[in-house]
Amino acid sequence: MDLSNNRFDSAIPTGVVNLKDLTHFSLSNNRITGPIPESFGELLNLEFLDLSRNNLSGEIPKSLEKPRYLKYFNVSFNGLEGKIPEGGSFGNYSTESFKGIEGLCGAPRLHVRSCKTKPLRNSKARTKLILYVALPIASTLLVPLGTWKRISYHELHRATDGFSRSKLLGNGSYGSVYHGTLSYGITFAVKVFKLELEGAFKSFDVECEVLRNTRHRNLIKIISSCSNDLDFKALVLEFMPNGSLDKWLYSNNHFLDILQRLNTMIDVASALEYLHHGNETPFVHCDLKPCNILLDEDMVAHLSDFGIAKLLCNEDSMIQTITMATVGYMAPDYGIDGIVSTKGDVYSFGILLMETVTRKKPTDEMFTGERSLKSWVKESISSTLLNQVVDMNLLSTNGREHSAANNCTLSILQVALECSAESPDERLNTKEIVTKLEKIKTKF
After folding, report:
1. How far apart are CA 423 and CA 338, in angstroms?
2. What's residue 411's pLDDT?
3. Residue 30 DSSP symbol
4. Cβ(295)–Cβ(302) under 8 Å?
5. What is the phi/psi pair of residue 313, to 5°?
6. Under CATH, what is the fold of the domain 245-443?
7. What are the Cα distances from residue 249, in Å, to 201, 327, 334, 356?
């Protein structure tokens, strides 16, 4: 039973529990309110349950540990709270099942906050806990909200072996990123700004502003900062052990299958949706490209590098700027007139989608004159030449798997072309993009 992508706005009908043979049930992307019925635990044949992107509240019923065959479970982007159950099939679910929910707590592997334990009754034991556990954590954990503690230059210098080349993770327009480990074991990435470059000071301020005022699982998190007036400025960020999407697309030692690439694009689209629509003041990233998309230990994508991001005031849907994004990903309206809007990010995302599926950079030497990545893709999917543009590694399977992968890549490229329309008014918005990509994933 698939009731997704409608406008249902009531509670989940209690009569669903009478459908004892129900194996697949989806109410995703509606406006459903209220709690998840405890009686769902009686649907013992359930294999697939998707309640994502609604307005559900309350806790996840512990009774949902009962259905033994429940392989797919998704309640992401709801208003749920409380502890995530641990029994039954819950040990098999990933962070995807619970993303976008601040009120949940549970196992660290799910990237949600830890659940509070009951207070110790023995006052001496409680005092010891504060002295030996709480205080060291308070002194080392650097909170990304409000005013955070700043790490000294000497701490960063020691943690990165003097910013040695062996610790270098990559270089950007305004800074170099290093991997470091603090004396108490915390690993991090530190972006050291090249202050000799014009615009570096502003880039530091903008990135601080964006990261300090946003919070989303698919955005890179700021841990701390280091600023010595005019001599040294750096941002301390969470470390992403799986590196960038660029590495996974173009390194011979790494490979992402079609589902992993689709999941990565959904993560990026979700981050953009939050930046464009999840704040009182919309943010425009302005520099979407594979090297700015980083993957954590669970292969969840995080959007990074906000050095040229722009904030749109409430009265503005667009602004003019002389800051230029990366050639190849830049919307024509951005490049010609310097117009910055959320639609510019959408255009760049469309190019990013094409690159992720074709494994061709928009700046590849094959694209000269009137021929571009976009025109190449457009010509190919309008004929029978799809196999010539899609990364051959994605279509190497046979039979039904090949057909499914073929249909999936075609659908993704069609969304990419809708995103990269020449006219900004004809482009999708990020809410529509997330919905379309989620539909493609469900169908695949």
Report:
1. 15
2. 94
3. S
4. yes
5. -65, 160
6. Transferase(Phosphotransferase); domain 1 (1.10.510)
7. 32, 19, 26, 7
Q: How confident is the chain (444 residues) per 10-residue block, as mean pLDDT?
A: 86 84 90 90 90 91 90 91 90 87 86 68 46 38 44 89 93 88 84 88 85 86 81 91 94 89 96 89 89 93 87 56 72 74 94 96 91 92 79 77 86 96 94 95 91
Mark whether 287 is an active-site residue. Answer: yes
Instruction: Give whole-number Cα distances, 410 to 57, 262, 282, in Å.
Output: 37, 12, 31
The answer to whether the CB of 205 falls within 8 A of the CB of 224 is: no
CA-closest candidate to residue 316, choices 334, 337, 339: 339
Q: Is the dihedral of CA 310, 314, 317, 318 positive or negative?
A: negative
Sole residue written with tokens 């109410």:
27
Domain positions in the chain are 14-105, 153-237, 245-443
pTM of the predicted model, to two decimals? 0.66
What residue type is assigned to position 144 of the chain? P
- State which amino acid sits at residue 175: G
Number of C-beta neighbours around residue 87 at 10 A: 10
Size (the chain), residues: 444
- Which pair of structure tokens corresponds to residue 25? 């049930």
Instruction: Identify the pLDDT of residue 29.
Output: 87
How far apart are alpha carbons 377 and 359 in whole angstroms? Answer: 12
Q: What is the assigned CATH class of domain 153-237?
A: alpha beta
Catalytic residue among 50, 287, 333, 391: 287
What sign has the CA pseudo-torsion 153, 155, 156, 157?
positive
d(CA 55, CA 59): 13
- How far apart (Å, rounded) are the C-alpha atoms in residues 211 and 220? 8
Tell me which architecture the domain covering 14-105 has in CATH: Alpha-Beta Horseshoe (3.80)
